[in-house]
């Protein structure tokens, strides 16, 4: 698992502990595959903001609908650079 | 006083259907006049009114937008022929009138075909929300005695296959859409392909059962509220009055047909009126929704408070939606800020209205012609007698205006459910004399506007639907570490209430974050996202009465930091 994907998994865990990113088709819409409703998705993105410091405004939700798209979005905004180690500290105390 | 802040609206571009004169003269016979009835006086069938009678019009019935950007327009003629094929598929598989066809489908055209096709075959159709987990699905299919299931290969694998052995009455599973056809199912497309597109709807009485929808009480299993074909009289009258639907409208009801709003107003009412409906398969996404409103030239939009409040966060500035002329909302009370937000965002206020699974259609509404009172559910529609009552030992006392009590509706409106299937006692408990007792508490002001106060029972209102705490608690206690559980609705600014669970651990188990997440994951897997708790606490004990009943209200008061009230009946702490 890439470091970024590990962050996504860690942000997902408190929202949907049963969800397994390993079973996800990264190019298909994420929410139905993991059975996430709107509230769950909101909380997942809030968790990512906390870990990575990257805000995904509601207007951009359509751009992060698949796992690949979410990773690309986060990468384009600096995830995997400085934010990564910072977030990792918070992720694994 | 919020009552005084009514919104006076500018005259609309279209004369409202509901005028003071209509209000004064309306009778249900007038609404029956909007329907054709089956040819040759063979009765009244919802599917005929929704598809066949408009088949020659050439109009688009469904303007479908797929989750990945696909588009498909389905005309009334196609809908009539495809639902004929579906009725033939059911008949060839031995399905008899009155037998139950359960649909577990995303919002795809096959869903609409299967609903109408089942009604044409005089089966009873039950649409389930596809975000349900296996447990609520098994419960409902069991209570409803499912004979046929229509789903997709993926939903079948995840949600039906694990419970198939609990459904011995299911003799036929049809799968729609892409994917390998699983063992034990057959392809819906192939079955439709082989079926004839000719079908004559057998004689249908307005009292014949049509649609089954499940709802929840505080205790016990979900309740299957059974509706009849004659309910369509209420659907079309209320859609004309509360949604102001006109034949030339493009209508978008955002509710999933797994909930009653999505069938009464997402399928039956607009189709029966010959109106084009937008169907969006995708999940909520603010940008996508704004695009649909603009690109599809939606003129009437019926949505839910949770969606409105999520849009309020995402919407930037004012957008021109020149085709939009009427917006309504249902699910839980729409806060005044949300009503007014519509004016800022697209120049139109949002009209809240109120009804329930059992009522079949809208009963109380802010309408096009009347001023809106923000925060109020509006006034009773023509043909509906609503009062505020107090019930003591089965005796109904109608309360004066201004007092808080339970909303009661004089029975006999056409959309009223006929029974909770298999449960005459629970059906009887909803009625006292001539009144249907709603379980919703409200007050009525001097202008006859109703104001929602809360639920009489512990049922949770979340994201526009009702969840019974017992159904959730039962699954929580099925986790090996949990000895008892209680579930409440925790007030939430977006979802109105969030489902919050409290669990007590069995001796020998130690509380930890890992265990808490394991219990939460267990609940989500079994229940699905729609009814699983969003929050879960491990607690040392739950408050109970001396007789042992868990006091959910006290848990809720504690959660909110409120005074706990009279604790004299409590177990010693």
Write the layout of secondary structure elements.
The complex is a heterodimer of chains A (93) and B (573).
Chain A: H1 3-12, H2 30-34, H3 38-52, H4 67-76, H5 82-91
Helix pairs in contact in A: 1-3, 1-5
Chain B: H1 20-25, H2 28-32, H3 46-50, E1 60-65, E2 71-75, H4 76-92, E3 100-104, H5 109-120, E4 124-128, H6 134-143, E5 146-151, H7 153-160, E6 172-175, E7 186-187, H8 188-194, E8 209-215, E9 223-228, H9 232-242, E10 250-253, H10 260-272, E11 276-280, H11 286-295, E12 300-303, H12 305-314, E13 326-329, H13 336-346, E14 351-354, E15 364-365, E16 379-380, E17 386-392, E18 395-398, E19 405-410, E20 419-420, H14 424-429, E21 431-432, E22 435-444, E23 450-455, E24 460-462, E25 465-467, H15 469-477, E26 482-492, E27 496-505, H16 513-527, E28 535-539, H17 552-560
Parallel strand pairs in B: 1-11, 3-4, 3-5, 4-8, 5-6, 6-7, 10-11, 10-12, 12-13, 13-14, 27-28
Antiparallel strand pairs in B: 1-2, 8-9, 9-20, 14-15, 15-16, 17-18, 17-19, 19-22, 21-22, 22-23, 24-25, 26-27
Helix pairs in contact in B: 4-5, 4-8, 9-10
Structure report:
The complex is a heterodimer of chains A (93) and B (573). Chain A has helices at 3-12, 30-34, 38-52, 67-76, 82-91. Chain A is an all-alpha fold and 93 residues long. Chain A has a single domain (3-87), classed as Non-ribosomal Peptide Synthetase Peptidyl Carrier Protein, Chain A. The model of chain A is unreliable at 82-93 (pLDDT under 50). Chain B is α/β, with parallel strands linked by helices and 573 residues long. Chain B folds into two domains: 2-444, ANL, N-terminal domain (Rossmann fold, 3-Layer(aba) Sandwich); 460-560, GMP Synthetase, Chain A, domain 3 (2-Layer Sandwich). In chain B, 29% of the residues lie in helices and 24% in strands. Chain B has 17 helices and 28 strands. In chain B, the strands form five sheets. Chain B has a nine-stranded mixed β-sheet with strand order 2-1-11-10-12-13-14-15-16. In chain B, helix 7 links the parallel strand 5 (146-151) and strand 6. The chains are: A mainly alpha (93), B alpha/beta (573).
């Amino acid at each position: 698992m890439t470091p970024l994907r590990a962050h996504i998994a860690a942000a997902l865990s408190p929202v949907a502990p049963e969800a397994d990113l390993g079973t996800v088709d990264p190019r298909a819409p994420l929410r139905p595959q993991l059975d996430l409703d709107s509230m769950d998705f909101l909380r997942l993105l809030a968790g990512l903001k906390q870990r990575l410091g990257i805000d995904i405004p509601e207007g951009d939700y359509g751009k992060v609908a698949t796992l690949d798209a979410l990773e690309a979005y986060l990468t384009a905004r600096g995830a995997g650079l400085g934010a990564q180690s910072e977030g990792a500290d918070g992720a694994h105390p | 006083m919020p009552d005084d802040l009514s919104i006076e609206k500018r005259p609309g571009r279209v004369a409202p259907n509901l005028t003071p004169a209509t209000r004064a003269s309306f009778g249900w016979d007038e609404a029956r006049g909007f329907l054709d009835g089956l040819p040759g006086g063979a009765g009244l069938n919802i599917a005929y009114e929704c598809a066949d009678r408009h088949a020659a019009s050439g109009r688009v019935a469904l303007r479908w937008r797929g989750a990945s950007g696909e588009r498909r327009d389905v005309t009334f003629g196609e809908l009539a022929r495809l639902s004929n094929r579906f009725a033939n598929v059911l008949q060839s598989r031995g399905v008899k009138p009155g037998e139950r066809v359960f649909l577990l489908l995303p919002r795809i055209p096959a869903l609409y075909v299967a609903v109408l096709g089942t009604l044409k075959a005089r089966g009873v159709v039950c649409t389930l929300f596809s975000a349900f987990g296996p447990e609520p699905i098994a419960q409902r299919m069991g209570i409803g005695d499912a004979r046929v299931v229509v789903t997709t290969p993926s939903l079948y694998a995840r949600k039906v296959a694990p419970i198939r052995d609990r459904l011995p009455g299911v003799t036929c599973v049809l799968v729609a859409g892409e994917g390998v056809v699983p063992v034990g199912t057959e392809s819906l497309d192939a079955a439709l392909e082989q079926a004839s597109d000719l079908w004559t709807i057998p004689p249908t009485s307005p009292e014949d059962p049509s649609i089954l929808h499940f709802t929840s009480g505080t205790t016990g299993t979900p309740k299957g509220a059974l509706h009849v074909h004659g309910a369509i009289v209420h659907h079309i009258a209320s859609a004309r009055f509360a949604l102001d639907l006109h034949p030339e409208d493009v209508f978008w009801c955002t509710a999933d047909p797994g909930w009653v709003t999505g069938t009464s107003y997402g399928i039956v009412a607009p189709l029966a009126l010959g109106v084009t409906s937008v169907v969006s398969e995708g999940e909520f996404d603010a940008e996508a929704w704004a695009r649909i409103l603009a690109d599809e030239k939606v003129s009437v939009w019926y949505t839910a408070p949770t969606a409105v409040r999520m849009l309020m966060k995402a919407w930037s500035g004012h957008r021109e939606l020149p085709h939009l002329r009427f917006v309504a909302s249902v699910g839980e009370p729409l806060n005044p800020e949300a009503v007014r937000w519509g004016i800022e965002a697209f120049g139109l206020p949002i009209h809240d209205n109120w009804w329930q699974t059992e009522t079949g259609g809208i009963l109380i509404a802010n309408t096009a012609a009347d001023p809106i009172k923000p925060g109020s559910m509006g006034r009773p529609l023509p043909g509906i007698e609503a009062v505020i009552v107090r019930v003591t030992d089965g005796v109904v006392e109608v309360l004066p205006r201004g007092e808080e009590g339970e909303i009661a509706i004089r029975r006999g409106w056409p959309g009223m459910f006929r029974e909770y299937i298999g449960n005459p006692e629970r059906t009887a408990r909803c009625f006292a004399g001539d009144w249907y007792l709603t379980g919703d508490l409200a007050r009525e002001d001097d202008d006859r506007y109703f104001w929602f106060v809360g639920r009489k029972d512990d049922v949770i209102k979340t994201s526009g639907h009702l969840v019974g705490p017992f159904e959730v608690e039962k699954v929580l206690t099925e986790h090996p570490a949990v000895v008892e559980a209680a579930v409440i609705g925790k007030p939430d600014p977006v979802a109105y209430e969030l489902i919050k669970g409290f669990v007590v651990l069995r001796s020998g188990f130690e509380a930890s974050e890992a265990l808490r997440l394991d219990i939460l994951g267990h609940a989500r897997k079994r229940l699905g996202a729609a009814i699983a708790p969003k929050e879960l606490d491990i607690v040392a004990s739950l408050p109970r009465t001396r007789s042992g009943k868990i006091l959910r209200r006290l848990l809720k008061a504690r959660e909110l930091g409120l005074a706990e009230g009279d604790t004299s009946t409590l177990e010693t702490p």
